Amino acid sequence: MEFGNPEEQSVTAGELYNVGPGEETPSSCMELPEDELPRQGLIDALVDLDLDYEREREILSRSSLGAALKARLLTKLRDQYRITRQPYLQQLAALSELARN
Fold first, then answer.
1. ∠94-98-101 over CA atoms, to 5°?
2. In which band, very low, low, confident or very high, does the pLDDT at 99 lie, cut at 50, 70 and 90?
3. By the 8 A CB rule, do 42 and 88 touch?
4. Which of 28, 84, 87, 89 is the most buried (most CB within 10 A)?
5. Helix or strand or coil: residue 24?
6. Using an 8 Å Cβ cutoff, are 77 and 56 in contact?
7. 17 near 47, Cβ under 8 Å?
8. How far is CA 78 from CA 35, 50, 56, 58, in A?
C-alpha cells in the first residue's frame, strides 16, 4: 500500500477495512508480533480519523445550512482532516521504509 500525498488518496482507512462506526478494527481481532504494533497503532489511528471525518462530513452534508456556508464548512473540515492525517501517513511511510532496509 502506498502512503503518498493525502490529496491523491480517495479511499479512507474505514472504507479500506470495511469498518463502520462502533465496529472493531482489524488489529483488535488478532494478536500481532511486537514489531508490528507501532505500525498497526498508526493504522488504527487513521481508521479512527477516517471514521470521524466521514461521520462529521455526513452530518454536515445533511444539515439545513445554506449551500454556500455548507460548502465552506465541508472544505474546512476536509482541510483539517488532511492536516491531522498527514503526520500518521508520514510515520507509516517511515516505518515502511525502515522495514524494507
1. 140
2. confident
3. yes
4. 89
5. coil
6. yes
7. yes
8. 32, 11, 10, 12
Reduce the DSSP state of residue 40 to 3 states and report it. Answer: helix
What proportions of the chain, in percent to the nearest 5, are helix, strand and coil? 75, 0, 25
- DSSP secondary-structure letter at 31? -
- Separation of alpha carbons 12 and 101, rounded Å: 28
List pLDDT tens digits, range 70-95: 999 999 999 999 999 999 999 999 99
Which residue bears the cell 465541508? 74
Q: How many Cβ atoms sit within 10 Å of the Cβ of residue 27?
A: 17
Q: Return the residue matching grid coordinates 445533511.
A: 62
Q: Per mean pLDDT, which range of 16-30, 37-51, 79-93 is the poorest?
A: 16-30
Q: State phi, psi for 50 to the nearest 5 degrees.
A: -65, -45
Per-residue confidence (pLDDT) for residue 74, from 0 to 100: 97
Backbone angles phi, psi at 20, to 5 degrees: -100, 170
